[in-house]
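PPM-type phosphatase domain-containing protein structure dump, as promised
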Amino acid sequence: MLHTGIEALFGRNRDGHRTRHIFHLRRHHHAQHEHKEEQDHLAKLFLTKPKLEKTILRGPIFAFTSMQGWRSTMEDCHKHLIPLDNHSWKLWSYFAIFDGHNGIDTARNASEQLGIHLINALNHMLEKQHDDTVYPDIPIHSYELDLQQLHAAIKKTYYDLDQDLRKVVKDESGCVCITCLIGPEKIYLINIGDSRAIIISNDGLVLAHTEDHKPDDPAERERIHEAGGKISKSTTGDVLRVENQLAMTRVLGDFAIDKHIVPPMADIVEYPRNLLASFIILACDGIWDVMTNEEVAQFVIHRASTNKLEEITSQLLDECIRRRGTDNMSVYIVKL
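structure tokens r here:
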């Protein structure tokens, strides 16, 4: 039997993304064995009390914090590169969170490989743009790049990564990914799935944000149906799912599903690195499940003048636990 301390929790679980309350389960008039199956399933996904220990990192311009929380395993991974490299991209930096599901193999391998793929793709783009004449010690600025070529290079990176993951991932896992590429003049927010990034001003205004890739989005529904996929609810009270499995529509991994249906197709949000932009916040859906963009922005800004960044990231996860967040939680805050 699940511990009473997690009654009224299970707002969404990472595998199921369904609203589940213990008292709600008890009201259902299902057969007794179905109750037991449901509770056994929840017991595998969740702990009887949350793991509140945190991984906390601090760098010159960022802080990162993660927590396992109520989940039985930690399936989030992360990566940052400051600078992106020591050559052409020495003025650039990179941050990414990989939110795994059904295992951690995809998230772990993706976190290790994406930065490498991205640097290679950007260098290849430079060679094409400059007819193979690249001076590696001269730093690249955003205004020197062809926007269309840059976006194409970034998007291709995720497809190439997904092909490589197919060769090395040993479980049935997948992951979503939120990435931030920061250049001298521009910021690029890149997402696949339902992790999210926001750029905020010093008064807490959300200046830009990514859009989650979810089955309830009309454009995603149309794309999936055209690819031969289906969107449905597996049980009463469940959320919409792709192929009766995933509650997100774009992923890395998940190779048991036709990749035309759930491709690693990244969207890119571009924003100028100007005086308005003060912070970038990247987080997995463990945060966004219980806090809105605006709530997170205000939470950070209200503490920015009196707290260190690592204190703010830590306090943010505590707030999500207080709000009954039940998922793994990972967050970067980057100061511009």
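Confidence is low (pLDDT under 50) at residues 1-8, 10-31.
lmk if u need the other ones
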